[in-house]
Amino acid sequence: MQRVATIRRRWRGLSIVEALLALVVLQVAVLSVSYAVGAGTNRGDDAETDMLRVEAAETLLERILALPVDDPQGPTQPGPEPGETPETFDNTDDYHGFTDELPARPSDPRVLRRVVAVTAERRELAGLGAAVDGMLVTVTVDGDDVRPWSLTRFVPGGAR
After folding, report:
1. In the β-sheet with 111-125, what is the strand arrangement from edge to edge?
2. How far is it, in rounded angstroms, from Cα 88 to Cα 99?
3. Which helix (H) or strand (E) element contains residue 83?
4. Measured by CB atoms within 10 angstroms of the end CB, which terminus of the chain is less buried, N or C?
């Protein structure tokens, strides 16, 4: 009979302290996993925003580089001539000082701002051993909760 009583004492179940300790351990594990998932989601959003910034800068830069460097009206100050709009820009330097805004994503209230700087520059080209006149075009994208990012290209041509 004493043997049965000893077995029953060993298999009584969990005490309240043991149950609370198990609950705390489980809670810490669940919180750790949820934090890791949240951090991964935020990094994914950051990567997507970075991709959108790059795409916004590249799209505008491609549009600028498709235009001739030389101004049809002859050498002028960088920037659009009176009466020109982005739809009627006819050369690279017309985009100097251009700014616009576009949504980061259709469902995102954040806005990406693009700013263009175009400067006349003379660069030494190592392969040719000569200096070349051209335009340095910089498109900078920033915005709400977005780190600024710039894309710069030198375009030969356009003696100044």
Report:
1. 99-103, 111-125, 130-143, 146-156
2. 15
3. none
4. N
Could you give the angle at the alpha carbon of 138 between the alpha carbons of 137 and 143, nearest 5°?
150
Q: What three-state secondary structure class fits 58?
A: helix
How many of the other CB atoms lie within 10 Å of CB of 115? 16
What is the Cα–Cα distance from 151 to 136, expressed in whole angstroms?
A: 11
Measured in Å, how far apart are the chain's first and last C-alpha atoms? Answer: 110
- Give the model confidence (pLDDT) of 58-107 as tens digits: 999 999 999 988 887 777 778 888 888 889 898 888 999 999 998 877 77
Give the CA-trace dihedral at 22, 24, 30, 36, to 10 degrees: -130
Q: How many CB atoms lie within 10 A of CB 4?
A: 8
Minimal CA–CA distance to 156: which of 89, 58, 70, 63? 70
